[in-house]
């Protein structure tokens, strides 16, 4: 047959060129065709943080994944992709996977965090900084669960837990029925992003009487941070701070637009970027203002710098200082006003001062005011967190969610992350009242502690705060994701421009030679889960097919038997001849 | 999966053809070139069918999940062209009836196998993803070999002048079944919501029944003396 075939081909090629073309072109095309991208399931995965800060590497250093999936129950995890669910996640299991040199870790998070038990969320939040500070070689991904992914997890778990048990027959049966999954990410290896610019914004309200008046600086950072940048929405930290700052800008711009209420203080608003990376935006802004220019509001006569950080929930407020304010200073005045306003108008609120010295030996500064403290500017931070290590400041669980306790209006303490609008409004009101009392010097003029300034038309508007928080938490605001042309920055600029004068953008780029921060890309990828079978299954199939073909061969060889039978059945008479 | 899996599927799809070719004695008749001609006729007929379908059957844009019975029936009717094509192949070959039938059917089925299964197998079975459908496709090609042999036999019988009157009706019915088999299968799958394995089984049984019937008719009349 083959000789004949070659003859045919020879004739074909000699006789007609087009025929050759028709035969060969598809053949070539088929041979070079890439493997299809048709997968059992395709889902988006978010990679863990990867960045260098002050030369120190953090996070997962790898992005490429192409291994078979297992769950932690399996005996052998080496070079496998370990799937975990948040429900039964523990740091020991994670460590076990890493110790066995797993190929990758994929952690499946629920779609809606608020459905999770509070203790699991809390525990995960505590662990998040651990993930990032211990540098991991393997890629670590986070995925949001859906039905397909859960079914993949269940099937993987079934095959993982049955390993290493049972008889040979069971194992054979198992290979034929069970599904394995090959996890493959589509993207390339992660690499450093060069020339990344962190954007900060400033704007001001000039006081009555020109530039010589003392200046009050209000500072907050807008970026968020979590174990995975694409999942960090940062509602409380620090969406709440930005919301309060914008609301303060709104109410004070109204006060400053009337001649009678135009106070003798300059107000300088600063929305800083890179707040989660050792306050890079603030650092550069200070350098620009103090070292590189001659005249700046920051250079002389700064009354105080008030930093707003994480103010969206809780029933206590802490004023963090690195040096207790001296009596008679504006700083001390604000402290007194905050105390008296909170005592007289918001009795449920516990207000206190926390003193913590700047520790220069630490890798990162604790609070934003320390950046100003280093430059000898009187500064403090207001927060509902008692400690700068509060897990909510660095968590992907910090999302905009209305917890049930705040919905039913009961006086329970909301321990979960998220922003409580009532409390956000109360904190805004408190800050606004205290600031106004300092600016207009109301206490010395004999005003009582329960005098409310921001009422009626000057109300602190809850809808305004809600819309800002909603807008901020509609997209992840991790520092690596907000570039200088992003809609977030532009909208912020527009919003500030509505109320403030001289709105300017400041950019920070890391030094080329000795970069203070380096970000890496490939933070969001598409992962494919391909259904696969083990190699033994192929062998088994080959044996089965060989047997089938053997039977077929025999059947065709003995086709005459069937033929004869049919003949006898159809012609019983002819048999008698 | 792997290249090995592709090999498996390939063997399952192609070896029955090879075995049939060898065992039916076609190789002794030097029938290879004739088979290739039959395959070329297959290509020509399919091209004509496609042109016809594209010209006269507009794409039906009904709602998803709704089965267009009339349209599908009309499309299946176009498959009559296959009968003509088979007849054409057989009328150009001189020889015994069995020989004609086998040459036409082998060429026809092999051309179909090469044209419609080769590329899906190469692309699909070699991919990372495992799916039973490539094994099913290979089994399906075995079934279609039997189907085309039966079909060629029925066409051959239908065109005989010495076919007795009493045979005319069953042969015509078989012819109709051959043509509308694919349509019937679609209908079954749609009405009974058959799974892919069950559908394959039903197809095998249906094809087996048709071919047994045609073999019976063939044996009864043309080998009676």
Description:
- The complex is a heterodimer of chains A (577) and B (225).
- With 577 residues, chain A is α/β, with parallel strands linked by helices.
- Chain A folds into three domains: 39-191 and 524-533, no CATH class; 197-402 and 416-509, Zn peptidases (Aminopeptidase); 541-570, no CATH class.
- Chain A has 16 helices and 19 strands.
- In chain A, strand 11 (215-221), helix 7 (235-256) and strand 12 (266-272) form a beta-alpha-beta unit.
- Mean pLDDT of chain A is 84; it is low at 403-415.
- Chain B has one domain.
- Chain B has nine helices and no strands.
- Chain B has helices spanning 3-23, 32-56, 69-78, 80-92, 97-116, 118-125, 133-158, 165-192, 196-222.
- In chain B, helix 4 (80-92) crosses helix 5 (97-116) and helix 7 packs parallel to helix 9.
- The model of chain B has no long low-confidence stretch (mean pLDDT 85).
Keywords:
heterodimer, A: 577 residues, alpha/beta, Aminopeptidase, 3 domains, 8-stranded mixed sheet, 7-stranded mixed β-barrel, 16 helices, 38% helix, B: 225 residues, mainly alpha, globular, transmembrane (chain A), membrane (chain A), Peptidase_M28 (chain A)
Q: Give the number of DSSP strands of chain B.
A: 0
Kindly, what is the distance between the CA atoms of the first and last residues of chain A, rounded to a whole number of angstroms?
A: 41 Å
From the alpha-carbon coordinates, what is the Rg of chain B to the nearest angstrom? 18 Å
Strand content of chain A: 15-25%
Largest sheet of chain A: 8 strands, mixed
Oligomeric description of these chains? heterodimer
CATH H-level superfamily of the largest domain in chain A: Zn peptidases
Helix content of chain B: over 70%
Radius of gyration of chain A, in Å, reads 34 Å
- Poorly predicted regions of chain B: none
Outline of this structure?
Chain A: The chain crosses the membrane at residues 539-566. Chain A: Pfam families: Peptidase_M28 (PF04389). Chain A is of the alpha/beta class and 577 residues long.
């Amino acid at each position: 047959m083959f000789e004949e075939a070659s003859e045919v081909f020879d004739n074909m090629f000699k006789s007609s060129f087009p025929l050759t073309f028709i035969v060969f072109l598809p053949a070539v095309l088929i041979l070079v065709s890439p493997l299809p991208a048709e997968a059992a399931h395709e889902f988006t995965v978010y990679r863990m943080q990867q960045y260098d800060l002050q030369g120190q590497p953090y996070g997962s250093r790898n992005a490429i994944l192409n291994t078979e999936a297992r769950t932690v129950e399996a005996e052998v995890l080496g070079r496998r992709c370990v799937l975990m669910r948040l429900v039964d996640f523990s740091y020991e299991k994670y460590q076990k996977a890493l110790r066995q040199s797993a190929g990758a870790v994929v952690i499946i998070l629920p779609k809606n965090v608020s459905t999770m038990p509070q203790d699991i969320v809390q525990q995960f939040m505590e662990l998040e900084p651990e993930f990032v500070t211990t540098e991991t070689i393997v890629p670590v991904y986070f995925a949001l669960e859906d039905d397909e992914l859960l079914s993949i997890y269940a099937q993987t778990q079934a095959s993982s837990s049955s390993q290493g048990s049972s008889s040979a027959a069971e194992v054979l049966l198992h290979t034929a029925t069970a599904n394995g999954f090959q996890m493959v990410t589509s993207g390339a290896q992660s690499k450093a992003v060069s020339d990344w610019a962190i954007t900060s914004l400033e704007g001001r309200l000039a006081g009555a009487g020109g530039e010589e008046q003392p200046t009050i600086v209000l500072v907050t950072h807008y970026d968020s941070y979590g174990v995975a940048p694409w999942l960090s929405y940062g509602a409380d930290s620090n969406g709440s701070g930005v919301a309060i700052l914008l609301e303060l800008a709104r109410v004070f711009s109204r006060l400053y637009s009337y001649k009678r209420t135009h106070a003798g203080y300059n107000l300088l608003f600063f929305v800083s970027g890179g707040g989660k990376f050792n306050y890079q935006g603030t650092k550069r802004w200070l350098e620009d203002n103090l070292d590189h220019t001659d005249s700046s509001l920051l250079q002389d006569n700064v009354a105080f710098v008030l930093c707003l950080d994480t103010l969206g929930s809780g029933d206590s407020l802490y004023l963090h200082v690195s040096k207790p304010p001296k009596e008679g200073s504006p700083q001390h005045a604000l402290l007194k006003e905050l105390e008296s306003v909170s005592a007289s108008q918001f009795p449920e609120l516990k207000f206190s001062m926390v003193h913590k010295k700047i520790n220069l030996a630490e890798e990162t500064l604790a609070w934003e005011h320390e950046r100003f403290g280093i430059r000898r500017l009187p500064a403090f931070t207001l927060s509902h967190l008692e400690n700068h290590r509060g897990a909510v400041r660095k968590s992907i669980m910090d999302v905009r969610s209305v917890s049930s306790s705040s919905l039913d209006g009961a006086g329970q303490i909301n321990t979960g992350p998220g922003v409580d609008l009532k409390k956000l409004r109360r904190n805004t009101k408190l800050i606004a009242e205290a600031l106004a009392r300092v600016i207009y010097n109301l206490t010395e003029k004999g005003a009582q502690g329960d005098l409310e300034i921001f009422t009626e038309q000057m109300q602190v508007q809850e809808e305004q705060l809600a819309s800002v928080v909603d807008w901020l938490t509609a997209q992840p605001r991790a520092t690596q994701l907000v570039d200088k042309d992003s809609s977030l920055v532009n909208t912020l600029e527009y919003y500030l421009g509505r109320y403030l004068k001289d709105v300017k953008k400041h950019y920070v780029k890391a030094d080329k030679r000795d970069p203070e921060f380096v970000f890496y890309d490939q933070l969001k990828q598409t992962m494919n889960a391909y259904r696969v079978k083990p190699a033994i299954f192929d062998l088994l199939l080959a044996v089965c097919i060989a047997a089938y073909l053997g039977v077929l061969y025999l059947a065709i060889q003995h086709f005459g038997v069937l033929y004869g039978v049919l003949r006898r059945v159809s012609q019983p008479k002819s048999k008698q001849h | 999966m792997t290249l090995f899996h592709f090999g498996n599927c390939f063997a399952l799809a192609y070896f029955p053809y090879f075995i049939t070719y060898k065992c039916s004695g076609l190789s002794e008749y030097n029938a290879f070139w004739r088979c290739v001609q039959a395959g070329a006729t297959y290509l020509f007929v399919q091209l004509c069918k496609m042109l016809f379908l594209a010209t006269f059957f507009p794409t039906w844009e009904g709602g998803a999940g709704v089965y267009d019975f009339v349209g599908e029936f009309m499309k299946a009717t176009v498959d009559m062209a296959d009968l003509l094509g088979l007849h054409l192949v057989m009328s150009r070959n001189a020889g015994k009836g069995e020989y004609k039938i086998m040459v036409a059917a082998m060429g026809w089925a092999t051309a179909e196998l090469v044209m419609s299964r080769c590329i899906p197998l190469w692309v699909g079975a070699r991919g990372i993803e495992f799916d039973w459908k490539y094994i099913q496709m290979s089994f399906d090609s075995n079934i279609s070999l039997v189907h085309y042999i039966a079909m060629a036999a029925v066409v051959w019988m239908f065109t005989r002048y010495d076919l007795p009157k009493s045979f005319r009706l069953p042969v015509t019915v078989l012819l109709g079944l051959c043509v509308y088999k694919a349509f019937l299968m679609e209908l079954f799958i749609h009405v009974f919501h058959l799974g892919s394995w069950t559908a394959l089984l039903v197809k095998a049984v249906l094809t087996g029944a048709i071919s047994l019937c045609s073999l019976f008719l063939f044996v009864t009349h043309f080998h009676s003396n």
